[in-house]
Amino acid sequence: MHEEVNSLVEKLRLPQSIYDQTSHLTRKFSSLMSQMGNISQTISNISGPVAILELQRQNAKKVLSYVNDLILFSTKMKEFQSALKYDNIPYAAQLCGEIASIPMHIPIPEIREFQILKEEVCEKVKKKFGEGLSENNKEIIEQYAGLFQHLHLGREGIERYIQYIIESLKGQFESIEQLLALNGSFEDTLIKIYRATVKTYEGQQENVSKEFGSEGNLELLQSLQCAVDGFAVKIIGRYSLEVLKKPKALGLCEEMSKIIKHTESFEIYIHKIGKKLVKMIELSQLDEKFSLETGLLKNSGLKSKIFELADFYISMEYNCLKESIEALISKVNVTQYCEKSFTSRESLCTGPVFEKLDECFFLVQNSANRVFASLNISSTCAILNNFSALISEDILDPLYKKFPNTKTQWNVSPNQNISIIIVVLNLINSCKKCIKKLVTTFELQFSKIFGLEGNDSIMFKHCLAAISDSEIKAKMRIDESLAFCVKSAPLASFLVNFRSLNYEISLEQHSDYKVNDPFALKLVKDIKGVLKQWKMQLVAEVFECLVDIVAEELAKAIEIEVRGKRFNELGALQFQKDIREIIGQLQHMSNKPLRHRFARLKQISELILARDDHEIISLTKDTEWKLIERENILYRKLRVC
């Protein structure tokens, strides 16, 4: 390397001072490398003994741990033997658990001795626990139930403890059942059974959880459910037989609804607890008969029995409600009511017939309240689904049949036949309002009790939509009836003056028409006169529908008459003014927009008034233009000059 440096210095022709420094650095580097080699050799010589020392330290630590375990084992064994000598079984059982948890790596004779003594303690614990069960000694049972865990007999302990709880509960069930034999109430009997079960779980869950954990609580809940299944099913079965012997009545429906409600409340309670426990212990598998979601029976006998009772309840509820409504509707005598009201000039919006109708919907609401209170979503949707047909076929249709089929006579003086029509229309409109109110109420009740999420809510919404269809049907019945009234008495009779009216007028006539209107004002006055009784006695909402239909039919009648007339420019101006006047006057009679009913007439008046073809083209290009090309030509020809 020194030679290479010399060669490099010569080639580069570096100064002598730099060459001297380079030689010094080379020697320094060689010295450092030599020292590093010495240090490495020293470390190699030391590492061997250090590794041996570390191994010895670890072995000493293990030996010390074994000695500590041996000392602890010996100490606990002495305590264990002493506890056994003085017959302190609970403490001896606890020490068994502690001694068994001490790791023993060295076989010693005391281990065999411990196993023999442990078996002795196990037998004594089982015996004492059994005596407690036979004597129903709650203190002994609760004290010894937890000892099974220390003796690694947890499965046997929890089974025997839960068995004791269930036997005790069944004793309560039998006492409750005996009260039923003494003319007790089925509802009260079931309530007591459910309450006793809930009280038992809530009273024992802390003890079970302390000794056996959440798994123990789940097993307790499963056992309680099975116990209730046997007794409650028997009670409900007896009740179902009793119901068959009784006459159908709404009171009986309410009784069944309450029994279903109490059972559903109990089912909801235990399933809620089951879900909570399953989440806590994270179950991966269960017996096939239990659900992984709740840890409880998939198909309990109680649920099946309640479904049977619910089916019977749904049938009876519907039949009783149908009979009650039919009886009320049969008492709605519109003719008799109108005769009395016509004589006394009473309102046709209130009175006995409307009270009967209100009672019908009151019965429907009460029926819904009963089924909502049952907390059974299947029964609720089934009953609500029946309401649609019930309202449509047993309330709306019978009322509609009371509508007179005779032609309407437009008469200024009050008419009894019109009174009957008005009452029927008011009744159907009252139905429409009641249906709307029911739908709103049902939605609020369902949301509050069951919530509006999930598959069940979809079924409910279908039922609600079916009930809403009855509201639509009521609106259609009103529209059909009003259309029949208007079309059965043609409005052409109001256009006598219009037929003889000449629109080829002079300037003087045009000026005179401004003061003495020959058509529009008289027409509106006549219409207001014949609609006076309707306006006074028909509810505002329905009267507005009547005015709308009158406006539609009147516009059609005027359009037909227009085709036989001729117009000069002043006549066209007068006709346009007449149409505006009619629209304005009729609009004052209703809050419902009416201008669209006269859209064609307005366009006809504009077409007749147009000055030239350019203006006609401009009018007909409008996207809102309703007249077709053939009609444009026809009505334009009515303009003579």
What is the radius of gyration computed over CA atoms, rounded to a whole number of angstroms? Answer: 49 Å
Number of helices: 24
Biggest sheet, open or closed, and with what strands and sense?
none
Helix coverage percent: over 70%
Report the count of strand segments. 0
Average pLDDT metric: 82
> What's the overall geometry?
elongated
The structural class is mainly alpha
Which residues form runs of ≥5 with pLDDT under 50? none
Oligomer: single chain
Instruction: Give the distance, in angstroms, between the N- and C-terminal Cα atoms.
Output: 129 Å
Percentage of β-strand residues:
under 5%
Order of helices and strands: HHHHHHHHHHHHHHHHHHHHHHHH
Q: How many discrete domains?
A: 5
Membrane topology: Peripheral membrane protein
Subcellular location: Golgi apparatus membrane
GO cellular component, one term: Golgi membrane
Domain COG4 transport protein middle alpha-helical bundle: 114-404
Give an overview in words:
This protein has 641 residues and is mostly helical. The chain has 5 domains: 2-68; 73-144; 153-307; 331-489, no CATH class; 493-636, Methane Monooxygenase Hydroxylase, Chain G, domain 1 (Up-down Bundle). The protein is 79% helix and 0% strand. The chain contains 24 helices and no strands. It has helices at residues 2-12, 16-85, 89-100, 109-135, 138-145, 147-150, 154-181, 186-245, 250-281, 301-330, 334-344, 352-373, 377-401, 416-449, 455-488, 496-500, 507-515, 520-530, 532-537, 540-562, 569-587, 599-609, 613-620, 629-636. It is elongated and about 140 Å long. The mean pLDDT is 82.
